[in-house]
Amino acid sequence: MPEHPAYPVGLRLTGRRTVVLGAGQVAQRRLPALLAAGADVLLISPSATPSVEAMAERGELRWERRRYAAGDLVDAWYALIATSDPEANAAASEEGERERVWCVRADDAEAASALTPATGRGAGVSVAVLSAELHDRDPRHTAAVRDAIVEGLRDGSVVARQYRSRTPGVALVGGGPGDPELITVRGRRLLAEADVVIADRLGPRDLLDELPPHVEVIDAAKIPYGRFMAQEAINNALIEHAKAGKAVVRLKGGDPFVFGRGMEEAQALAAAGISCTVVPGISSTISVPSAAGIPVTHRGVAHEFTVVSGHVAPDDERSLVDWKALAALRGTLVVLMGVDKIDRIAATLVDHGKPADTPVALVQEGTTATQRRVDATLATVADVVRTEQVKPPAVIVIGPVVRVGPDTLP
Ligand SMILES: C[S@@+](CC[C@H](N)C(=O)[O-])C[C@H]1O[C@@H](n2cnc3c(N)ncnc32)[C@H](O)[C@@H]1O
């Protein structure tokens, strides 16, 4: 018979008898996908790996503890032949041929009637890759092609527009602290599918350079706001573009709901009847200290961390922060937007009883190429910020965790 390439197809196995012969590593790897497809799995094998056994115990499949016997494939739609006995595999394969049951074989793929592709999922599609030549199969190559496609779809480097199910309306995407690799997979994909991106100053701005030329990128800081407040002008821009049928991404630094006014934007969109998807992001509150080697908690040192905004000074009547209570806490204090007010913040904490020698670290432009860390104490931090010229954006960490590092003994 002349050699033809395999014909790719998607099997709908829900509720359909699928026989798996053998319960070793091959079955263990393939069973989750069969179960995810809803297959009615009958497993025939005298023994099984612990994870396959657990599937049987959970009732996900039916397990008959015995060897293959003629007739096992009679009611099957599909079979995976993966026993350690080549004769049993060949006999089952012949039975499959007679009964017209598509069979894959772990020991001799070429002798089987079906082949298992390298599979993966991403961006709402299943990807299945088969070698073009039956006799020249290279499973590592097909797996590598699958990985490249799935990763590309996830991180947006393979841009495949969705036409029927593009996310309508606006996506509020948390972009992470700045390093373009610290955005989520979903955020990156939505960015790649956007028609309009309204971006903040903070966040992964490098990603904007990678967008295709037709994407309109709007700098949120530069939206003219005339008699409107800046936030209202941003809300209006989001609404206007979404109403024009565009896929809009509002790209924000860190997480949209951590001092990001994300909910105000979501409320404005709801009031305008526009759907809004929120994509969480890695907040600078934890990631920036972490990137500078500071754990916000550490066993035996800090069992809590508190995040506060320092954008208004402690003695400002608009402040909602209870600085006295914070001074009494033993854990870690993480202050955002606090560089300009650090002298009054430090003085207030000391006035309320926090030791003046409490360690402080300021991490400026964390996770970016220009990240720098400056250390001080509550007593010295005001001077240090001036002499070292620390500028926003910076995350300020106050507490003993600042002195914990890979070399400190437990
Ligand atoms: C308006 S808040 C937004 C916070 C953001 N939504 C988040 O979850 O990280 C801005 C403040 O976050 C902090 N910040 C954000 N990104 C930073 C970075 N890469 N390095 C240092 N601080 C950062 C600074 O304190 C900055 O003033």
TrEMBL record:
<feature type="active site" description="Proton acceptor">
    <location>
        <position position="200"/>
    </location>
</feature>
<dbReference type="InterPro" id="IPR003043">
    <property type="entry name" value="Uropor_MeTrfase_CS"/>
</dbReference>
<dbReference type="InterPro" id="IPR014777">
    <property type="entry name" value="4pyrrole_Mease_sub1"/>
</dbReference>
<dbReference type="InterPro" id="IPR036291">
    <property type="entry name" value="NAD(P)-bd_dom_sf"/>
</dbReference>
<dbReference type="GO" id="GO:0043115">
    <property type="term" value="F:precorrin-2 dehydrogenase activity"/>
</dbReference>
<dbReference type="InterPro" id="IPR050161">
    <property type="entry name" value="Siro_Cobalamin_biosynth"/>
</dbReference>
<dbReference type="Pfam" id="PF13241">
    <property type="entry name" value="NAD_binding_7"/>
</dbReference>
<dbReference type="GO" id="GO:0019354">
    <property type="term" value="P:siroheme biosynthetic process"/>
</dbReference>
<dbReference type="GO" id="GO:0051287">
    <property type="term" value="F:NAD binding"/>
</dbReference>
<dbReference type="GO" id="GO:0032259">
    <property type="term" value="P:methylation"/>
</dbReference>
<dbReference type="InterPro" id="IPR000878">
    <property type="entry name" value="4pyrrol_Mease"/>
</dbReference>
<dbReference type="InterPro" id="IPR014776">
    <property type="entry name" value="4pyrrole_Mease_sub2"/>
</dbReference>
<dbReference type="GO" id="GO:0009236">
    <property type="term" value="P:cobalamin biosynthetic process"/>
</dbReference>
<keyword id="KW-0627">Porphyrin biosynthesis</keyword>
<dbReference type="InterPro" id="IPR035996">
    <property type="entry name" value="4pyrrol_Methylase_sf"/>
</dbReference>
<feature type="domain" description="Tetrapyrrole methylase">
    <location>
        <begin position="170"/>
        <end position="381"/>
    </location>
</feature>
<dbReference type="InterPro" id="IPR006366">
    <property type="entry name" value="CobA/CysG_C"/>
</dbReference>
<dbReference type="InterPro" id="IPR012409">
    <property type="entry name" value="Sirohaem_synth"/>
</dbReference>
<feature type="active site" description="Proton donor">
    <location>
        <position position="222"/>
    </location>
</feature>
<keyword id="KW-0949">S-adenosyl-L-methionine</keyword>
<dbReference type="GO" id="GO:0004851">
    <property type="term" value="F:uroporphyrin-III C-methyltransferase activity"/>
</dbReference>
<dbReference type="Pfam" id="PF00590">
    <property type="entry name" value="TP_methylase"/>
</dbReference>
<protein>
    <recommendedName>
        <fullName>uroporphyrinogen-III C-methyltransferase</fullName>
        <ecNumber>2.1.1.107</ecNumber>
    </recommendedName>
</protein>
<keyword id="KW-0489">Methyltransferase</keyword>
<dbReference type="GO" id="GO:0051266">
    <property type="term" value="F:sirohydrochlorin ferrochelatase activity"/>
</dbReference>
<keyword id="KW-0808">Transferase</keyword>
<comment type="similarity">
    <text>Belongs to the precorrin methyltransferase family.</text>
</comment>
